[in-house]
Amino acid sequence: MDGLVHGSATGDTLVAGRHRAFIAAHLAAGLAALMAMPLWLAFAGLPSPAVAVAFLWLVTPLPIAAFLSRTGRYADAHLLSALSLTGLVGWIAAFTGGLASPALAWLAVVPAEAALSGSRRVVVSAAALAAAALGALWALALAGVSPVPFALSPLFAPAVIGSAVLYAVLIAIRIETVHNEARLAARLGDTRYRLLADNATDLITRHTANGDVGFASPAARALVGCPPADLVGQGLFHRVHIADRPAFLRALSEADRTGEAITAEFRLRSGAGDTGPYLWAEMRCRPVIDPASGRTVVAVTRDVSSRKAQETAFAEACSAAEQANRAKSQFLANMSHELRTPLNAIIGFSDILEQQLFGRFEFERHHDYARLIRSSGEHLLDVVNTILDMSKIEAGRFEIHVEPVPVAGLVDSAIEMMSHQIASRQLKLVRRLEPGLPAVIADRRACKQILLNLLSNAVKFTEAGGTITVASRQTGSGVIIEVIDTGIGIAPEDLPRLGTPFVQADADINRRYEGTGLGLSVVKGLVHLHGGSLAIDSAPGRGTTISVTLPAERAKPAAERRVADRDAVAFERERRIA
With contact defined as beta carbons under 8 Å apart, do 358 and 352 qualify? Predict the structure, then answer.
């Protein structure tokens, strides 16, 4: 029988029991009528049309049971049952004496059975159906068109009335059973609720529409150190810090208004007196339907002082770290400014000495010393300028002036500036630019610095005889510029650290390649200032590919691109600088 209960009713044992009883009773009534039909045929012969219709009415409980099993609509099933029983009683009464028929006693059973539905609408409808049946019989009698009554046995009246009374008694017992089951379920639910509330470590409260507490669980002692009765009414509200009371009341009001769970954090006074210490509490509240008092708000409140202390410590640590970072950036910027002035003087005077403008050196090594001083000063000035740029980027003070910048001109300018270093390392340079590239919308000086840093890294980490490729292509709404080398490559575990200031893949003091670890971090910062992206693909012994994506100018039609690119003679041009 459980398999015939609709899925919508299986979640509640009380509801499922009612569905099960209804289906079982109607199946039994319908099957009894079907089994009685062969007995009638055996002892009374073929039934008259009136009896045949009565038999058909007697089996209607079967499709009504199927209706409830398929739809789960309990009230509607009871309404159909009332309609079926009323029709059957009216039909039998019409052929057994009309308004004087003893079968009319069953009309009193119709609204009584409908009461099992628990729906006032169904009970009223059933009573109306019974009254309509009586009205129809009265109208037939008044019009003088009542059917000819059957010859009835003297036992017919007692049997019909007795069965109606017996069925009414069974319905009364069923109603009492349903009422007891509902009362027991409510008592069990209340017991479970009390058990959970009494043993929960969080405070559970039930609130009225104005925020007053109607119930507080025993966890009040553990949370605020007072008996639950002290929180009833406005006791909890008076313990909320005065500055947090609007948030407390707003959470309860929003939960009641929206029907959703609302969370609020506030300070709650603990202890028995009015001067106890405050703890941080988190309250999560949501509305529920209480059968006794209607709509109410239930809240669960817990102590989150430890979490708030951790959040405060974390916020203070973040603030301290930000201040330290700002101080570091300011220090580096100041230091860079202070160093540039003497370095410019050192470079300028060493250049004068190297050119022997004030007379030739007596010894050639003095000329070499001047050259070393100038080259060392220039190297140190490059480091200082890089540090200054990095400081500006981190501090958000690096200004960029965007404009359309042709990619071909940008690449050629950077290659020309690096040509001496490329030639001195005996490297092969490949320039591979896609025809019809749109200009990038970027700062020209920043873009040149990006390319120079990438080329400088490629030259530094590529052995003599290696190849450096500068390639560019359009993708979506941007342009990708790639610098590809056949150098030593980078280990996979070092890739995530690259782009962090002062971080190098080889950080050992005796490393083979010099540098500060700022070049790639400057590139990364400049790319991000333009809203672009940086990607690194590398492996030891396989070389490195660094891809920079920058926003591009709106693409031009093909005819315009051919005119604009008339100077791009070939898709790929190789240049060897010896």
Answer: yes
Going by C-alpha positions, the residue among 221, 214, 283 that lies closest to residue 252 is 283
Question: Running DSSP on this structure, what letter comes out for residue 394?
Answer: H
CB distance 282 to 301 below 8 Å = yes
Give 474's strand partners.
Answer: 479
DSSP letter, residue 233: B
pLDDT in tens, 260-319: 999 999 999 998 777 789 999 999 999 987 655 567 899 999 999 999 999 999 999 999
Q: Which residue, among 448, 468, 455, 349, has the nearest Cα to 405 in the 3D structure?
A: 448
Q: Residues 255, 286: contact at Cβ < 8 Å?
A: yes
Cβ-contact 454, 547 below 8 angstroms: no
Report the C-alpha dihedral over residues 505, 506, 507, 509, rounded to 10 degrees. Answer: -170
DSSP string covering 299-354, please? EEEEE-HHHHHHHHHHHHHHHHHHHHHHHHHHHHHHHHHHHHHHHHHHHHHHHHHH
CB 285 within 8 A of CB 252: yes
- Architecture per CATH, domain 310-395, reads as Orthogonal Bundle (1.10)
3 state SS of 530: coil
Rounded to whole angstroms, how far apart are CA atoms 211 and 228? 16
200-303: CATH class: alpha beta
Query: Six-digit token pair at 105?
Result: 């006693």
Asked if 256 contacts 262 with a C-beta cutoff of 8 angstroms, the reply is no
Q: What is the C-alpha R_g of the chain?
A: 47
What DSSP element (H or E) covers 256? helix 245-258
Residue range 169-191, pLDDT digits in tens: 887 887 777 777 777 766 766 66
Amino acid at 244: D
> Are 200-303 and 310-395 equal in CATH topology?
no
- What pairs with residue 442 in β-bridges? 403
Cβ 522 vs Cβ 436: under 8 Å: no
| Structure-token pair, residue 324 | 């330290």
What's the rounded mean pLDDT across residues 91-108?
A: 82
Q: With 80 as the cut, is the pLDDT of residue 225 above it?
A: yes
What is the CB neighbour count within 10 angstroms for residue 18?
A: 21
C-beta atoms surrounding 144 within 10 Å: 6
In the chain, where the domains are located: 2-186, 200-303, 310-395, 402-576
CA 574/CA 428 separation, integer angstroms: 8
Instruction: Give the count of beta carbons closer than 10 Å to the beta carbon of residue 186.
Output: 13
Helix (H, G, I), strand (E, B) or coil at 274: coil
Residue type, 219: A
CA distance 154 to 556: 107
CATH superfamily ID and name for 402-576:
Histidine kinase-like ATPase, C-terminal domain (3.30.565.10)
Query: How high is the mean pLDDT of the chain?
Result: 81
> For residue 530, which of 479, 476, 472 has the smallest C-alpha distance?
479
Please count the residues of the chain.
578
Determine the Cα–Cα distance for residues 373 and 368; give it in Å rounded to an integer.
9
**Strand-strand pairing, 213-216 and 262-269:** unpaired
Tokens 């089951």 -> residue:
181
Number of neighbouring beta carbons within 10 Å of residue 191: 10
Rounded Cα distance between 9 and 69, Å, is 10
